[in-house]
Every structure is written in structure tokens, then in C-alpha cells.
Amino acid sequence: MKRVLVISTLCCLFILKTTGAQANEAKQGITVDPAFIEIDLEEDEQEETFEFGFQNNNKESVIIELFTLNFRHKDETGLVQFIGDDTTSYEYSLVSYISVPVDSIRVAPGEKEVVPVTVKNRLDLSPGGHYAGIIGRITSDKDTAQNTKVRPSIASLILLRKRGGEQFNLSLKEVDWPSRIVHFFYTDKISLMFQNEGNIHLVPRGTVEIRDILGRVIYKGVINTSSFYVLPSSKRRLTITMNKTLRALPISIDTLTVKGNDSLKKTRFTFQDSYIHIHPIVIFILIVASGLTFAYSKRKWSKR
Length: 304
Description:
There is one protein chain. By secondary structure, this protein is mainly β. It has helices spanning 2-10, 280-302; strands at residues 24-25, 30-33, 36-41, 47-56, 62-73, 80-83, 98-99, 104-107, 112-120, 128-139, 153-162, 170-176, 182-183, 189-196, 204-211, 217-223, 234-241, 243-244, 251-262, 268-278. The chain folds into 2 domains: 2-162, Immunoglobulins (Immunoglobulin-like); 170-284, Immunoglobulins (Immunoglobulin-like). Residues 1-9 and 18-28 have low confidence and may be disordered.
């Protein structure tokens, strides 16, 4: 029952990214560092050991119960969903290969406790990506076994890559933008949907450019400035901010180009679409000119 409560509390709290990961913080001021760790295992390595530190910023001692849970993407937004005990069908499970030497730790006020964690490279650990979190459930001496309230928890995420059989297959599945033959305005946001059909986590990188009929780059965006991952067997939607680089021509045949690769440079993706751009002022001038021409012609004919 307790673990179910923890899972429901944690499943929507994390968005996975590679850079700028800050320590996860619970309500009482408990932090864990690192909040995010990547591990590479070679085929012939027996194990990998690393450490997590739990910092108590409270004025009272706390007890942190430790356990592990597998995780995956919850949806295309990149939210992380922790998975319960029944993970036999989860291809990228990592929990059964993790060894934590203690079930709980006591952290004094203002102190930090370090916990070593070991990942065993057993023969049944398949090549590719495997994902789990070290969960710290915060309690105190005042808590009792009958107290079933949802207590705050913090987690540090582990992304493991076992070398020797990775399958790299990241593709651009969808470009969501105003796809029309004629455009009157430039959009400042473009949405891209990536799909990872391989067995290893990857980071999409690249650029989105709009070029005019002269070949000039007039708008440009950078894909995935936050370095978000796409986990295996998952889709992820990223929003790209387009920045103006040059003044656009009043009338032009523009080309939108999306191109890039994953962070390991194992896969490439590209997309291209062309359209006619007409500035609204041109439409206004044409309407005014047509009106004046019509008025002049009508006046000319009325004098005959």
C-alpha cells in the first residue's frame, strides 16, 4: 500500500533531460544529488558503483526509506512514470540489477548522507538502455505504521547504457506547423514529434530554418536546447522557438527545412516544405490599388 502511494505521488513529478539537472527537492527541504546520472557499461564490465547524497536542510532529523523503481515516459510530453513491482513485461527494466546496501538512512539537521549504489552487469542484462530511479521516502520518528498518509518522496534517475548491441533508430515523425500553400505571417513556434524505435535513449539535435527565394535564412530555431531525451519505444514532442534573423521579402517562395541527428550521431532526420509568402501589406496595397482602379474606371465611363 505504501509503495502504491509513493508511485502515484511521483509519477508526474519528473521531466527527463540531460543538462542543468537540479537536485530534486521535497517539501521539507530534503535534496538528492545528483538528481540524474548516466552510466555506460561495457560488455566485459562486471559492475558499476556510484553514489547519491541526501542533504537535510531541516531543523530536525529525518529518516529516508530507500527503494528502487523502474521508469518510462508517461506520454509524449516527456513526463516520467514510475512502474510498480510487476515489471516482468518491461523490456528496459533495471531494478533487479541494482544493489543498495541499506533500506533506510537517518540524516541529521544540516548534514548529508552518502549512499553507494551498485549496478550488476549480469549475463541477462540485455544491451541497450535500462532505466530506474532511487526513491527516497521521507519519514520521521513521529510516523507510525498505521499512518498511511502520502509522505513526500524524492528520486534520482538512472539511465544505463549497456554497450555491445545498441539499436539506434530515432526518426522525425511529425512537423506540426501551419502547412498551407500561401502564408501571410511567420510562426514563432514549430512543434516536432520524434519517435525512438531503437533500444537506447537518444537526444535529438539540429536546426529549423526558413529560407526565402534568395536563399537567405530569415528565421531559425535550435532543436532541443534543453537536451531532452527520447526513451526507447517512446514518442516525444518538442516545441521549437523560431527567431527572426533577417527582414523578409514582401513576396517570396520560402522553404522550411528541419534537419539534424541524435546526440551520438548514429541517426539523421530531415524534413522540407515550400510555400508562398505574401506580406499582408502587399494584400492591402493590391486591394487599395484595385479599388482606386475601379473608381477611376467607373468615373471615366460615367463621363461618356
